[in-house]
Design goal:
Length: about 550
Amino acid sequence: MRESFLDYGIEVSGSGQQKVRCPECTSGRKKENQGKKDLSVNADTGQWYCQHCEWHGGLKDEQRMSTPVVQIKREAQIYDRPQFVQTVLPDTAVSYFAARGISKQTLEDLKIGFDKGKSSIMFPYFKNGELINIKYRSKDKKFQQCKNAEKCVYLYDNIQNDELVFVEGEADAVAVYEAGYKSVVSLPNGAKEFKFWENVEARLKEVERIIIWTDNDSDGYSARQDLAKRVGYERAYYVETPKDCKDANDVLLKHGKDKVLALIADAKEFPIDGIVFAKDVDLISYWKHGAKEGWSTGIPSLDPYWKFAPEVGELVVGTGYPGSGKSDFALDILVRQAKANRKVGIFSPEEFPLPRLMKKCMEKFYGLNAKELCEDQVEACHQWLHDNFFFQYLEDSTPTVDDICNCIKALAVKKGIRFFLCDPWNELDHSVRGGLSETEWINAALGKIRRVARQYCVTVIVVAHPIKPSKEDEGKAPSSWAVAGSAAFRNKPDVTYSVHRPKYGHLDEDGEVDINITKIKDKDMGGLGYLQLGYDYASGTYHSPVTRFVRE
């Protein structure tokens, strides 16, 4: 059997050098010291040493299973490069910037120009001294960029390795520069677009400290969290914008350059592992912008019982007896989320081969059986699947929980997924649990998935099989306590549900499906409840209220 850190009770995440709690001495220490992380672990070499009890050791090289780094294949991309022509800003444009507190010297430094044909201000995007894109801003605040240009942050070449301020728009970047702070960049497409990340990720990794200053609104709050997740909370800081200002440019206008620099100097840390003081938490912003209305499941009658939290990732466990449709139900919910522009990752090895799984998604997308579709519809949906679904598909190996977590992290950062389906649980490699009992292992593994879900804001749905029902329970929906392996399947998740076909195997079965929501941790996202849905066999979709379907 292959060794892993869990064989020795050591819980690590990712790769590299890290500090964790020592399983050898933690339980015997004073209560106030049990949280200390004195065990130094090198996840790459497999070595560890405790600075408290001096316990040390290492994994055997010939047996150790190293967690592979998940690689996202990048398609070769050829970009068009615009031609740069230095232009003179008309007086009206200079006056516009002056009214925003921006000097003519700053405009010249940043090579900001004007396109007469478009009647728009030009913000040139340089990368390593080369012009890669131009963003145009018209008088009525309409934006346009060059076709097929490389997406990148504005003022990329201004990045300095010791510290960087990350703002939301070009005007804010120019304002921070005007205040005298030169190491500043901005998002190229506002608060909600991160397709540029792969083009700047390597350069940003060289920066020691990144200060995030997004707009003082709900989109800005979301962008702040997204940026912190991508750069890493350990080196991310944020600026709290004064209540009477919307953004950095507003601060420059109302309070002057010194205030801009003072806010940057007083940037706050993001709370990370360890003690968090209440004043370090931006409760006002969360109250204003964070606690949002939950996302619909896409099935109206289900929403009073279960919605998805937009600002946080959750762990969801679904169960049901074989043939109940528990996988079909989860897939239908996720197709509906993808139709609402929320990207999805899937590990579903039981759906083999992969085209069969994609065909199911396509039928749910159209609400029609595949036989009813024309070739144009199939091609259109194929492109939609390419843009919104990412499949973890391993033909010659079985992934571990660590592999799943690494896949979620990679897809969250590089592709922006908000949902991930692991279906079913028993298809993962659980042989790495070492000396842990099945209950201990499941508890630790689900805890690890939940931490990743929360840290990367991805809702992870795990589909797990229940134990065989007793004679007294035959014909009844399975309880969330009855998932095979451990009560942790009920205790750890934020949401649990079961899917049941009460007339399964009967001649009079008419598409009736029982959905039982057995746990909702956040009262704002629903509550316990039971409802009936109708199931359309042809398309594999669920409907409310109950509709009777007859098999031909």
